[in-house]
Design a protein that fits this description.
Shape: globular
Number of strands: 12
Strand content: 25-35%
Number of domains: 2
Largest sheet: 4 strands, antiparallel
């Protein structure tokens, strides 16, 4: 009897502990955080392994510094790696007080361009031309030589007549100099153009300067400064965030959303989002007091588990004499996974509002793709 009662006393706290653990696991992450480092904890998505290796070897292989790579490899868990990736882009963001990172978007745009124009024996981002384009952008001038064209000797002193080649010219490259000329030669006549230049120019072109963190000893580097947890902008449109967090869907304004998706690497795609609002009463009548209307827009991209992957905000002012259509375009880079797109819009003067919800998926196949999705909402 005593033995049975003792077992009963042990089971009760154990059951309570299990129920508490299940409750914690079932809790959804709180959406709409203000911190960039917290709002994008999404590298582990759709039940897949976190794609840190592919991110390191594909997405940022040409722009990550040796110090950053050493710090990344010394990290002990995926939470720290998530913080590192967030801080990596934040340090390069020219407008860190906003949610939009122009550097990151431009970086992935260049990867897509390289894949479209420089692919040969492999994806375009891996090629020599792709690497230079991704790091330095489009050249100021390109001279193309076919196998039949006569061309002057390349900068390495070799005569490449009879081989397809290109010469890229840059008026100025920071850290390299002025009037920079780069020769690319298709040695195999298979579309795989390789850089041909003096070693000193190659060393200058391929050098990656440190960004934001000063660490000199790569072997004994301290990874903590590279995490920079807790930084980020403050959300302006709290009222629109509250609308997205509430369950009822507001449909006071017609809304149309289009997404164009292009794969960049094996783990990342860029998404172009076009938001169109149309309503005859959206723009107030022209008066001295109110000649125009202002529309605030908040967009939120979340994984199916609730983590916020991206946020974007915008304010558009429409003149009363112009057509009452508002079109807002945003470009974001996302890991290939399932997502939920949430949009809230509100006119500042009339307080007419709309919330819109939709889902989309970025596929994980390897070839470049293009998909156009159109979603409409009419009250």
């Amino acid at each position: 009897m005593t033995h049975s009662r003792t077992r009963h006393y042990i089971l009760l706290p154990l059951m309570a502990l299990l129920m508490h653990s299940f409750a914690l696991l079932s809790q959804s992450p709180t959406p709409g955080t203000n911190s960039k480092s917290n709002k994008r904890r999404v590298l582990r998505v759709d039940g897949q392994a976190a794609p840190f290796k592919a991110w390191l070897e594909q997405d940022v292989v040409w722009i990550i510094t040796p110090e950053e790579k050493a710090a990344f490899k010394s990290l002990q868990n995926d939470e720290e790696r998530d913080q590192f990736v967030e801080a990596f882009w934040w340090r390069r963001d020219p407008t860190p007080d906003t949610y939009e990172n122009e550097f990151k978007v431009e970086h992935y745009r260049r990867i897509v361009y390289a894949n479209d124009h420089f692919a040969a024996q492999g994806p375009g981002w891996k090629s020599d031309r792709g690497r230079i384009y991704i790091v330095y952008g489009p050249p100021d001038h390109v001279t193309t030589f076919s196998a039949q064209d006569a061309r002057p000797p390349a900068q390495d002193g070799q005569d490449y007549n009879g081989l397809p080649s290109e010469t890229w010219s840059y008026r100025y490259l920071e850290g390299v100099g002025t009037d920079v000329v780069i020769d690319f030669v298709d040695i195999c006549s298979c579309g795989d153009f390789r850089m041909r230049m003096p070693d000193e120019l190659r060393d200058a072109l391929l050098f990656i300067p440190e960004v934001g963190v000063n660490e000199k000893n790569v072997k004994t580097i301290n990874p903590k400064p590279y995490l920079m947890e807790g930084v980020g902008p403050v959300l302006k449109f709290r009222d629109l965030e509250a609308r997205l967090d509430s369950k009822p869907t507001v449909r006071a304004l017609p809304l149309e959303v289009k997404t164009e998706v292009t794969k960049a690497t094996d783990v990342t795609s860029i998404v172009h989002i076009t938001i169109s609002l149309q309503d005859g009463e959206m723009t107030p009548r022209e008066t001295e007091a109110s000649p125009a209307t202002t529309v605030n827009v908040l967009g939120r991209v979340r994984t199916l588990t609730g983590h916020v992957a991206e946020l974007f905000e915008d304010t558009v002012t429409v003149d009363a004499s112009s057509p009452s259509e508002i079109r807002i375009q945003k470009t974001i880079a996302l890991l290939n996974a399932h997502y939920r797109l949430e949009i809230a819009a509100e006119t500042a003067q009339t307080k007419k509002a709309t919330t819109w919800l939709g889902t989309f998926r970025l596929n994980t196949f390897r070839l470049n793709t293009f998909r156009l999705n159109t979603f409409s909402l009419n009250p």
